[in-house]
Amino acid sequence: MDQEAKAAAGAPATLWDRTRRLASREILDTALRLFTEQGYDETTIAQIAREAGVSQRTLFRYFGTKEELLGGDQGSFGQVLKDTIGAQPPEAGVWEVLRAGVAAVLALHDSREQALERFRLLHRTASLRAGWLEKRLRFQEELLPLVAARMGAVGGADPRARAVLATSFACLDAASMAWVEGGGERDLMDLYDECLAAVRG
């Protein structure tokens, strides 16, 4: 049984699993510190590996790209969104299920401080911003069938589901920018709710 299957079956973590998680966390913490201190584009993979005390080859076994060192595994984010939205009760409204998806993804951050640093870097680094916009469009396409079905939309020609998804992601962007500008003082989900209320009002 592989490690993913063990985890899914609820098997206890092995020493190898725990060691791997600790190494991954150390690499991530090192990368985030360097990105914050000297900028994302100015920080090299070689420097991150050296400061974390691992080889570049080892680093790439944990993280496939430099971007994953900031944003984590985007594939898993998309899966969490789909799983959370798909698991909501049939009677839940579309805005409610999307809010649950947003909250689930935000909960993947290890801490409030880590989330704040990641969003700060995302909004202030042009290359990361461009990458996020591309991923956002991909997430919207992946979520489209789930949202369309919940809204009773038929076929790709119905624009309502696309409009709702685009609005939800735009509100997350607006909320996270305000959150960063406010130094993380307020609750990010409260800001998301305010943005959504303004659009829907």
Structural description of this entry:
With 201 residues, the chain is mainly α. It has eleven helices and no strands. Mean pLDDT is 86; it is low at 1-9.
Low-confidence stretches: 1-9
The CATH class of the largest domain is identified as Mainly Alpha
Strand residues, percent: under 5%
Q: What is the tally of helical segments? A: 11
**Largest sheet composition:** none
Instruction: Spell out the helices and strands N to C.
Output: HHHHHHHHHHH
The percent of residues in helical segments reads over 70%
> How far do the termini sit from each other?
52 Å
Number of strands: 0
Averaged pLDDT, please?
Answer: 86
- Gross morphology is globular
Q: What is the radius of gyration computed over CA atoms, rounded to a whole number of angstroms?
A: 19 Å
CATH topology of the largest domain: Tetracycline Repressor, domain 2
Determine the CATH superfamily of the largest domain. Answer: Tetracycline Repressor, domain 2
CATH architecture assignment of the largest domain: Orthogonal Bundle
What structural class do the secondary elements suggest?
mainly alpha
Q: How many domains in all?
A: 2
Features:
single chain; 201 residues; mainly alpha; Arc Repressor Mutant, subunit A; Tetracycline Repressor, domain 2; 2 domains; 11 helices; 75% helix; disordered N terminus
What is the structure about, briefly put?
The protein is mainly alpha-helical and 201 residues long.
SSE arrangement:
Blueprint: H1 3-8, H2 15-38, H3 45-52, H4 56-62, H5 68-71, H6 74-87, H7 94-106, H8 112-124, H9 126-151, H10 160-181, H11 188-200
Helix pairs in contact: 2-3, 6-7, 6-9, 7-10, 8-9, 8-10, 9-10, 10-11
